[in-house]
Structures are given as C-alpha cells and as structure tokens.
Design goal:
The chain has 327 residues and is an alpha+beta fold. The chain has two domains: 129 residues, Arc Repressor Mutant, subunit A (Orthogonal Bundle); 173 residues, Alpha-Beta Plaits (2-Layer Sandwich), CATH 3.30.70.3460. Helix content is 34%, strand content 24%. A nine-stranded antiparallel sheet has the order 5-2-4-3-11-8-10-9-6. Strands 1-7 form a two-stranded antiparallel sheet. The longest helix has 15 residues. It is globular, with a radius of gyration of 20 Å. The C terminus is likely disordered.
Length: 327
C-alpha cells in the first residue's frame, strides 16, 4: 500500500508532540482539515496496513526499566529457528537479521536488569549459542522521528534527562500503552478506566515523562520499510575513548542519523563502540550519508563497518507489562 499525501502529512506532523489532551484526535484532525472520526479512521487504516506500528511513547533506555542490545552468530541453516526462539521472548522488542558474521541482532527492553539477564540466559540455554551483550553506555541522540518529505529538515533536540520524579503509576501507564494508544475519541480515558486512575492523572504523568526526558518522543512510530526506507544501516566505529564524545556530537547533528549511541566493546569478537542508525531509501543514499559523516568528523581511516538489515523478525515498543508473549 502506497501512503496517500494525507497519510504522509499526518505521519510527518505527529511523529512527535501528539496531543496530551482529552480529545487528541480533534486537534490532529484540524491539522489536516479533517473531521475527528475521519482522522481516527485514517490512523486505523495506517496501522492496519503497517505504515505505523502504534501511536505511543518512545522511552529513553535505562530510565524506567532496563535494556541492552544482543547479537548472535547463527549458522545460516538455523537462523529462522533461532530467530523464532529470540522473538518469543516477551522483552525482545526488535529482532533483525543483519549482513555480518554476527547475523542476528535484537533489543531486550522494559524489564529490570535481572529480567534482561534472565532473557539472555534463556536464549543461550535454548539455542546452545552465546549472546554478545552490548549494553548502552551513553546516548548521544535518540530517535525523534524524521521528515518523510524533507530528509534534510532541521533535527529536533531531545529533552534533557535528569528532572524525573519517579511515580509508581508511570510503569503501569507505560505498560497500558506499550502497544499504542487506542484509536478512539477519548484514548486517555480508556487507559485511565483500565488502570482505575483519573483521566487527568494519566495525562499529567505522561506530560511529566515527556518534560523530564524519560519519554523522548510521543507520537507515531513508523515502519520505515513500509514507507520506502528499506536501506536500514547500523554503522559502527572503533573509536578511541578520548575522541568518542566529540565525534558522536558531529554524527548526532546530522539530519539523516536517527540514533547515535556508545556501547560496550566485546574484544576480540566486537571491537566497535560507536553506533549510528541511518534509514535511507537506497543503499547508495545510506553510504552517501556515512561518507559525509566520515568527512565531517575525519574518521574515514578508522576501523568501521556497516550492517544492513536483511529481515525484520520482530518490532514493537519496550515491554513494561508482565504478560507473556503469545506469538
């Protein structure tokens, strides 16, 4: 399904700052000169056809809960089987085949640190293969969406993290919306009723999570491949520790970089510590971005690699509920 101009405009406008008000689709509809029910219908169709996975919260890693990135070297004839085992784990949110000897990459997110460790141990026990655990050490840029129509649009800055006042309601609210807001007239009221909270409480806690930088983006979470961005590149560099902050700052400013992290090395298997994600329509476009990054930061001679994704086995938001995975 090719998205219409109305759908593209709605996705572009509402990847961030989705209204935290009683009737959010009333505001969304006005932005596109639609009726409220028409706007809800458009979002339902986009979700049904896989253009967006949900409307909801993108949560900063290791704030509410914990997370890590795992990688495995899987024999090609076992890849589908092992991918199914990994995807069955309820805390695995993303699971991709990538072009590398380490060919299966997955994110584990949402549980406490012990739950992350338990997940890795179960995967290793069931597959008989080791998992490379690559925890995040520093986030330089967190995905805040990107323009579908203007890829060189000015990048939005993430809200600084550090003024978060934890509340026991937060994890319950994030769990209730982990699959997305209900696409109805009063979505926050539906969440509040499910949790036996007030509608105003739910909205206020989400506002606080956004203002504190725990939720880095509240809005449409897109499926890049369905929108034509099929060159999904994870680029990595072996960066000297004394240079990494300065180089990452240059990378993070580039409008085509959607994520920029520092992660642990795992020598001798994995020497890389700086990660960037680039989503492009064509491989040549992705390589052009990476060439530009190397030119800007003078990193062209440093050891680096580009891991393009081949298949997506699973993609969802962080898991804050305690339910079991069923698929």
């Amino acid at each position: 399904m090719s998205p219409s101009s109305v759908e593209l405009d709605l996705i572009d406008r509402w990847q961030h700052d989705f209204p935290l008000v009683k009737k959010p689709f009333e505001i969304v509809a006005r932005s596109a000169a639609l009726g409220e029910q028409d706007a809800i219908g458009v979002f339902c169709r986009m979700q049904e056809h896989g253009l967006i996975s949900r409307i909801g919260a993108v949560v900063r890693p290791n704030t509410v809960g914990a997370s890590t990135l795992g990688a495995m070297q899987v024999p090609p004839d076992r890849l589908d089987q092992v991918a199914r085992i990994v995807s069955r784990e309820p805390l695995v949110t993303h699971n991709y085949e990538r072009e590398h000897d380490l060919n299966l990459w997955f994110v584990i997110a949402g549980g406490e640190a012990d739950a992350i460790t338990d997940t890795i141990e179960r995967i290793e026990a069931e597959t008989g293969l080791p998992v490379l655990d690559l925890p995040m050490l520093h986030a330089y840029h967190l995905g805040l969406g990107f323009s579908l129509n203007e890829p060189r649009a000015r990048k939005r800055k993430a809200q600084a993290f550090g003024n978060y006042r934890p509340d026991p309601r937060d994890r319950r609210i994030l769990a209730a919306i982990e699959n997305g807001l209900p696409l109805i007239e009063y979505p926050y009221l539906a969440i509040a009723d499910r949790l036996a909270l007030g509608e105003g409480e739910v909205i206020a806690r989400l506002e606080h999570l956004v203002e504190a930088g725990v939720v880095t983006r509240f809005g449409c979470v897109v499926r890049h491949d369905k929108l034509g961005f099929r060159a999904n590149a994870m680029a990595v560099w072996d960066m000297p520790d004394e240079m990494i902050d300065d180089v990452a700052a240059i990378f993070a400013r580039h409008p085509s970089v959607t994520l920029c992290y520092r992660r642990s090395r795992r020598l001798p298997v994995w020497p890389y510590n700086l990660f960037c994600m680039v989503h492009a329509r064509l491989r040549g476009d992705a390589y052009a971005v990476l060439d530009e990054l190397n030119l800007l930061a003078d990193t062209g001679l440093m050891r680096q690699a580009v891991l393009f994704s081949k298949r997506c086995f699973k993609q969802r938001g962080a898991v804050f509920s305690e339910r079991k995975e069923t698929n």
